[in-house]
Write a structure and sequence with these properties.
The complex is a heterodimer of chains A (242) and B (280).
Chain A: H1 2-14, H2 20-26, H3 29-50, H4 52-58, H5 60-71, H6 84-96, H7 102-118, E1 136-138, E2 142-147, E3 166-172, E4 178-183, H8 185-196, H9 201-211, H10 218-233, E5 237-240
Antiparallel strand pairs in A: 1-5, 2-3, 3-4
Chain B: E1 8-11, H1 14-23, E2 30-33, H2 43-55, E3 58-61, H3 75-87, E4 93-96, E5 99-102, E6 105-111, H4 117-134, E7 138-141, H5 155-167, E8 170-174, H6 175-185, H7 189-195, E9 201-206, E10 210-211, E11 217-218, H8 227-240, E12 245-247, H9 256-279
Parallel strand pairs in B: 1-2, 1-12, 2-3, 3-4, 4-7, 7-8, 8-9, 9-12
Antiparallel strand pairs in B: 5-6, 10-11
Helix pairs in contact in B: 1-2, 4-5, 7-8, 8-9
Chain lengths: 242, 280
């Protein structure tokens, strides 16, 4: 009985429209609709908090219908309220691909990446200082994001964004905010290699230089040193991996 | 360090944390957190917890391991929760006596259980399972509900007691929830408290609630504590003695001074009621 009751309540709360039959079976239909409203309002609230610019760009009706469609799959799979917007975006991006302006998709990716960085786990403790002959440790709150449109430059223009491909490193700063930093393609590849952590710094630098057809000369070394120093200052690079 | 938890605490919430942690009012004796907001999370939440722990004991109150579901618990999460409670030396943990999810999905709200023997058995079994997993005392909390579950409004008290006794468990007594239910379903909230074994109560919650135009009361934690809930707290404390009391405020969070006035009011009630308990 408890199991069937749970499924009825789930349908009442999450179906696009609650069925009269389910409500009658549960009894006190108007009160179960109170629960439907409470549950949905709370979930919509956190989604709105995470994706305000995406919602504005897509428009209230379309955004609301996407949220309703997502909820109708049965509700949130995560116990962590902060992960609810990520579930919505995973569901929504394929739906929006065909009929939403491409820059809006980039905006949604950017907003959810920023949200994820803000709420990411705490950093692991490095085993020691950063060195070229060891595997580096990157902070937990760091994401590399390849975008076609400069959506990190807000506010959103009235006529949207024109194409301008770039790669961002989003990281959580000491004020706990997600901050974008533009990376060149080689730096982005390096950071992703360091996030994977399966090569030493020297190995990953050699591989990235080879794949981009760059000589490791004095100019390269100087730029690499600056990049590493910036990453360490910003808390992106923490040191040596255990 | 496991410091004593007593007196009046306040829920550590993001929107009031900055001012609370900066001013560190002495009238606040402890803080309560929802572990789901802190497990596997860094940033501001990690900082808030670290700052709070410098001056205050911390108690945890779960949101997602509700006791009424049928699906097996996620062992990974229970392991994380147990490790978290152990790391921060939390003396006891609490969860809601409700349905929190169905089919491995989460409502992110507190759905009432029917007051049946089947539900009591399920809840008691799950409570013991969580308690074993976290290896420390686990209290259940009575919830507010908006759908009639019985023609007798006091049937909820009997249901709560049945679960407590089946699991030999402790109770986090939410007097605002009792008051909300008593208004929505027309029973005497003091008679509800009379049915609760006072020795099982380890903690009390107080809060405000919203009254809709149609009279239905919703447990929003978004309004000041009403006088009737203060009165009910006084009544409960005279029976339980000095168990720690938490002021819950999760929405429409006002300036800290407004909350501290409520803390002062709660402190006065706490002192007079627990002194009366000692004398009685």
């Amino acid at each position: 009985m408890l199991g069937e009751r749970s499924r009825l309540i789930q349908r009442v709360c999450f179906d696009i429209e609650p069925s009269e039959a389910d409500l009658e079976t549960l009894g006190s239909p108007e009160r179960w609709l109170v629960y439907r409203d409470l549950v949905r309002t709370r979930l919509v609230g956190v989604v709105d908090a995470a994706l305000p610019r995406s919602k504005a760009a897509i428009g209230e009706p379309r955004f609301a219908s996407t949220v309703a469609a997502w909820l109708s799959t049965g509700g949130s799979k995560t116990r962590y309220f902060r992960h609810v917007p990520n579930e919505l975006v995973d569901f929504a991006l394929p739906l929006w691909t065909d009929d939403v302006a491409p820059w809006v998709l980039d905006l949604a990716r950017y907003e959810i990446a920023s949200w994820s960085v803000r709420h990411a786990a705490s950093n692991l403790t490095p085993a020691g200082e950063f060195t070229f002959d060891t595997r580096p440790l990157v902070g937990s709150a760091v994401r590399v994001l390849r975008l076609e449109y400069p959506v990190h430059e807000g506010p959103t223009p009235e006529d949207g964004y024109g194409p301008s491909p770039h790669t961002l490193c989003l990281y959580r700063n000491d004020k706990h905010r997600a901050v974008p930093k533009i990376l060149n393609p080689l730096a982005a590849d390096l950071l992703e290699a360091w996030q994977r952590g399966d090569q030493t710094v020297a190995e990953s630098v050699q591989q990235a230089a080879n794949s981009h057809g760059v000589d490791i000369g004095p100019a390269f070394v100087e730029k690499l040193s600056t990049l590493i120093a910036d990453f360490i200052t910003d808390g992106i690079l923490l040191g040596r991996r255990a | 360090m496991n410091r004593e938890v007593s007196g009046i605490g306040i829920g550590l919430r993001y929107d009031l944390a900055s001012e609370l942690l900066e001013r560190r009012p002495e009238t606040v004796s402890w803080v309560e957190i929802h572990p789901e907001n802190y497990v596997d999370r860094g940033g501001r939440y990690e900082e808030m917890l670290e700052l709070a722990r410098r001056d205050w004991p911390v108690i945890t109150h779960g949101l997602s391991s509700c006791l009424g579901a049928l699906e097996p618990f996620d062992p990974t999460y229970l392991g994380q929760l147990g490790a978290f409670l152990s790391e921060f030396d939390i003396p006891w943990h609490s969860e809601h006596l409700c349905l929190g999810g169905a089919g491995e999905r989460f409502f992110h709200d507190l759905i009432p259980l029917p007051f049946t023997e089947e539900a009591a058995k399920v809840a008691a079994t799950r409570l013991m399972e969580v308690r074993d997993a976290i290896d420390r005392p686990l209290a259940l909390e009575n919830v507010s509900y908006y759908v009639p579950q019985s023609s007798d409004g006091l049937a909820e008290a009997d249901f709560v007691v049945e679960v407590l006794e089946r699991a030999d468990a402790k109770l986090l007594l939410d007097v605002n929830n009792i008051f909300v239910n008593s208004k929505n379903f027309d029973f005497d909230p003091k008679k509800y408290i009379d049915r609760i074994p006072a020795e099982r109560v380890v903690q009390i919650h107080v809060a405000g609630h919203h009254v809709r135009d149609d009279g239905l009361r919703i447990d929003t934690h978004g309004e000041p504590v009403p006088s009737e809930v203060y009165d009910l707290l006084d009544y409960a404390l005279r029976k339980t003695g000095p168990v720690p009391v938490l002021l819950e405020r999760d929405n429409n969070i006002p300036a800290l001074d407004e909350l501290l006035r409520e803390v002062d009011e709660l402190t006065d009630i706490y002192r007079s009621a627990t002194e009366a308990h000692d004398v009685g």
